[in-house]
Amino acid sequence: MRAVVQRVSHASVTVDGEVVGEITSPGLMALVGVTHTDTEAEARKLAKKLWTLRILSDERSCSDVGAPLLVVSQFTLYGDARKGRRPTWQAAAPGPVAEPLVEAVVKELRDLGAEVATGRFGAMMSVGLTNEGPFTVIVEV
After folding, report:
1. Which of 76, 88, 90, 130 is the catalytic position?
2. Domain that includes residue 32, residue range
3. What pLDDT tens digit does each residue of the chain (141 aa) get?
4. What angle, 0 to 180 degrees and rounded to 10, lies between the N-to-C axes of helices 95-111 and 40-52?
5. Of residues 120, 135, 114, the one with CA closest to residue 48
6. Of these residues, 14, 35, 74, 118, which one is catalytic?
7. What pTM value is reported for the model?
8. What's the per-residue H, E or C state across 81-136?
9. Is 76 annotated as catalytic?
């Protein structure tokens, strides 16, 4: 699993003009991609990493300060544009594989005590955020 994680002051996801997920206080925005070989074990590991990643102000984590997370599925994280001008998506897991694993990340985060907002799997989403720092990291498990 792969995530692009941004420290944000707020973030939201809109589908068809409706806000479906939003965090309104400082926290993390995580775009999560799944590949074919990922399992629930990787989903749990990624959730724990996101919850304890020390990238908030004063080197604190969401678990330290109870900061919220917005988790959005992002199959394009496994796009490959090394050849030519058109990316391939062969490394991205198909929806029936990816959706339950993204949901497992969210469930594990909530089980750990996190406030988690989400996008809508498979939908055309508009993501808005204010990246603080800016601070962005890539996490792979």
Report:
1. 76
2. 2-140
3. 999 999 999 999 999 999 999 999 999 999 999 999 999 999 999 999 999 999 999 999 999 999 999 999 999 999 999 999 999 999 999 999 999 999 999 999 999 999 999 999 999 999 999 999 999 999 999
4. 40
5. 114
6. 74
7. 0.94
8. CCCCCCCECCCECCHHHHHHHHHHHHHHHHHCCCCEEECCCCCCCEEEEEEEEEEE
9. yes
Bridge partner list, 139: 3
For residue 9, the Cα-to-chain-centroid distance in whole angstroms is: 16
Rounded CA-CA distance 39/84 in Å is: 31
Whether 88 is a known active-site residue: answer: no
Q: Number of structural domains, the chain?
A: 1
DSSP H or E segment with residue 47: helix 40-52
Q: Which of 6, 14, 75, 118 is catalytic?
A: 75
74 assigned to active site? yes
C-alpha distances (whole Å) from 102 to each of 55, 75, 83 are: 22, 11, 28
Q: Looking at residue 20, which CATH number applies to its domain?
A: 3.50.80.10
SS3 76: helix
Sign of the C-alpha dihedral computed for residues 101, 8, 79 and 117 taken in this order: positive
